[in-house]
C-alpha cells in the first residue's frame, strides 16, 4: 500500500505497518516544544494531572521567545515559572534570554533538533515550520503539551494530504513569501483544514531552507495540520551543517492525495495580504501607494539571513522614509551575529532601521513595536487579523522582506521591483 | 454527560483566536483576568451577552490562527457551555474538547440559527433542537475516546484518571 510522507511518519510512530486518512492513532512524539505563553498552562496541567517526571527531558525543548526580555511584571512572572520548570524537571534544552536564544521555530531547525521523518509537536501554531526539513510538525494547545510531557504520546487523526507541485523558479526580488501568500490566497483560510500539505517540484528544489521555512511556517494559515517540504540535496547540505543525523522518510510518488495543485513560481509577482485575513492576497501593485507608519522585518516567518540580505540589498545607499519606523528583528542570536559579521546590520542601521534582539514581539502585538489606533504596518510576519499587532483599528499588510524594505524607503506600499538591483 | 440548553450567541466565519483573546493579555495565567478580555476586539458587548446567551454559534473555521488554549479557556470562563460551528480550525477544536467544552460541527445549518434562539443539545440522541424555530437536526457523534475526554471534564481529568492514553 502506498503512503504519503505524513502517513509513513504516523505509521512508523504508532507502530503500524500502514495508516489511512481518517484513522485515529496514538503516536510516539519525537520532540516537544513549549514557550512562555503556552508553557505555564502546560506545566500547570502536567502537575494537576499528578505527574512528577517528564517523560523524556532530552526530547523536550523550552523556549522564552514571545516578548523577551520581560516587558512587565506579569510576563517576568511567567518566565520565572518556565525557569522553575526547566530546573525542576531537568530540561537542559532551555533557551532563555541570552547568546543561544531566539524564536523557537528557528532554534529547532538551526540547532538540529528536528530532521526528516520526525514527529514534532509544539505548543504553538507555527510549529509546522519544521516541515522545511521534512519533519511532520504539528501545533497543539497547552493541555496536549502537558499530556506529552507526561506520556510522550498524543492522538492524531491521519489527515488527507494535499500535494502542491511548484514548477519554475522564483525571479528575484520575488521570494518564497510571495509564493506561499499566493498559495494561501488560492486555497483560502480554511482550504487545508485538518489536512497535510506536501510541497514538491523542481520549483521547490531551488528554494533554500530559509525560504522553505517561510513556506512550511505559513501552512497553518490555510488551516493545515502540517506542511512538509520535500527532502533533497538542499536538505542534506543544511542538516549536515546542523550536525543532524539523516534518516529520510519520503512518501511514495504514487501515494493517494486528496488533491494536487500546481503553481508556477517563475510567473509569480510580489504578493501582499491585505487586512484582515491572510487569504486576502493580491499583487503588491494593486495596493501600491498605501501610506505606512511602520515596517517590520522579522518573526518566525521571515527573520532569517536570506530575508535580512534581501532587505539590506534594498536599503543600500537608501534611507528609511522619515515618517516610518523600520523595525528589524533577526529570528535568533546566531542569525543576529551572522548578520553583524556580514555587515548587513550596519547597512540597515545606516539606512535608519532599528535592530532589536530576537523575539516574536511585534508580530502579535506583545512588544517591540505595537501599533496605535489607525496606524498601518507592512510586515514580513504571518497574520494580519484585527488587532493582531496592536489597536483594533490598526491595519497590517503581510509581504516579503523585499517588499517590506522597499515600502520602508518609500513610506508607502511599494513593489520591490522598482528598487531591486 | 448532561444535555446542554441555552440561547444562541451568533458570530460569523473565520473567528480567530487573536480576537477571542488578544496576545497582549497572554502575559498571565490568571483565568479571571484573561476572561475579562474575551472577544474584546470583536464584540465589546460579549460579556453582557453571555449573561443570557451561552451557546456560541459560528460559521466556518472557528478558532483559526494561534494555538493559544487561552481562547477555549476564556470562552468557558465567560460561561459558554457549548460551541456549534460550520467547521473548526483543528487546534482550537482539540483545545475545546480538552477544556471539556462540547464543540459540534453543524455544516450548512448555522445560518438557520439567530442570536437569542433557544437551543437544546441532546447528548443521548445526538440531536440539536432549535426550540425558537421548532427545528431539529442530527449531530454526528464524536469518536468514543473524545467523548471520554469530554465526559471526564477535559484532558487533565482524563489523564489524572487513566494515567495514559
What does this structure look like?
The complex is a heterodimer of chains A (421) and B (165). Chain A is built from 14 helices and 18 strands. Chain A is an alpha/beta fold and 421 residues long. Chain A has two domains: 5-264, Aconitase, domain 3, CATH 3.30.499; 270-418, Aconitase, domain 3 (2-Layer Sandwich), CATH 3.30.499. In chain A, the strands form four sheets. Chain A has a seven-stranded mixed beta sheet, with helices on both faces. A five-stranded parallel beta sheet of chain A has the order 4-3-2-5-6, with helices on one face. In chain A, helix 3 links the parallel strand 3 and strand 4 (94-95). The radius of gyration of chain A is 20 Å and the shape is globular. The termini of chain A are far apart. Chain B is built from seven helices and seven strands. Chain B has helices spanning 17-20, 31-35, 46-49, 70-77, 90-98, 144-152, 155-162, and strands spanning 4-10, 53-58, 82-85, 103-105, 118-122, 127-130, 135-138. The chains are: A alpha/beta (421), B alpha/beta (165). At the A-B interface, helix 2, helix 3, helix 5 and strand 7 of A face helix 4, helix 5 and helix 7 of B.
Which architecture of the largest domain in chain A would the CATH scheme give at its second level? 2-Layer Sandwich
Radius of gyration of chain B, CA atoms, in whole angstroms: 15 Å
- Mean pLDDT across residues of chain A: 97
Overall geometry of chain A: globular
Give the number of domains of chain A: 2
Which term fits the overall shape of chain B?
Answer: globular
Uncertain stretches of chain A: none
Q: What's the CATH superfamily of chain B, by name?
A: Aconitase, domain 4
How is the quaternary structure best described?
A: heterodimer
Domains of chain B, number: 1
Question: Class of the largest domain in chain A in CATH?
Answer: Alpha Beta
Q: Largest beta sheet of chain A, briefly?
A: 7 strands, mixed
Beta percentage of chain A is 15-25%
Mean pLDDT rating of chain B:
96
CATH-defined fold name of the largest domain in chain A: Aconitase, domain 3
What CATH calls the topology of chain B is Aconitase, domain 4
Number of strands of chain B: 7
Main pleated-sheet profile of chain B: 7 strands, mixed
Number of helices of chain B: 7
